[in-house]
Amino acid sequence: MEKKAAKTTVKTVVKTDKAASPGGWYSQAYKVGNLIYTAGITANDPETQEMVSPGDIAGQTDQIMVNMKAILEEAGSDLEHVIKTLVFVKDIEEFPRFNEVYKKYFPEDPPARSTMQVGKFLGDMVIEIEAIAVAKE
Prior knowledge:
The chain is of the alpha+beta class.
């Protein structure tokens, strides 16, 4: 009987000081093959770890995108290679304000996206975004 070699998946932790890593027990992202999976990215400043723009979805979206860019660059990718985002908002009525900022970072061929209202976050956080991207070749 022929034995098959066990398949192994190699995952690599992605970590950068150029993006916030506020408390909690999680990794900023993982790279598996040519795919990068981020954790939920928050609007914390990477230097102070403090939430920026408390209660303001536009300001927080902007900081999240800056943090996302830094994480993806550390993993060998960039915003142009994002294929899917998952957006959690405190109040879906704020969607238009979020979307205007989001469009600045994805001006053409935006990634597939799901957005949902979660109702409540800790403190003054009003939005969190996860991303899946492919590595640049």
